[in-house]
Design goal:
single chain, 2 strands
């Protein structure tokens, strides 16, 4: 399994918004430049994040985006699933769509279900309140 480029960019964008002052909006251009994300691709990502309730969009000349809720309430799982849909480590865990003839008596299914639950719990524990920007000794923002 590999995280999609779109999810990676979405995680970077949300981290950027989490680090903005509470009353400041972030623009597509500012986020694209700061996070090295192609602007046009970022616009689509921010639309998805807004549609899923992670961001709030403000229109107009002074418009932009901000987090819809506190950074500590937005998890990595929220962002990844907003972009890529539900996480599944194996077809066996997609009970609604699995067409395997061994689905009912598969000896590996429980293993994959256990691993998927553990992975999801790990992503749920990672929230953006933990990933505040900090300055290095050289003054560069990390």
């Amino acid at each position: 399994m590999r995280l999609s480029r779109k999810s990676d960019y979405a995680l970077r964008a949300v981290r950027h918004f989490a680090n903005l002052p509470k009353d400041k909006l972030g623009s597509i251009s500012a986020v694209a430049e700061a996070e090295s994300v192609p602007r046009e691709f970022l616009a689509k990502i921010l639309k998805d994040l807004t549609r899923s309730g992670i961001l709030v969009a403000y229109q107009g000349v002074k418009g932009g985006y901000r987090l819809a809720r506190p950074a500590k309430e937005v998890t990595f799982l929220d962002v990844i699933e907003a972009i890529d849909g539900p996480i599944h480590l194996n077809l066996c865990t997609e009970s609604e769509t699995c067409r395997c003839e061994r689905f009912d008596d598969c000896t590996m299914r429980n293993f994959w279900i256990t691993q998927e639950k553990a992975f999801r719990r790990t992503l749920e524990k990672q929230h953006f309140g933990k990933y505040k920007a900090r300055k290095s000794r050289s003054g560069v923002q990390l």
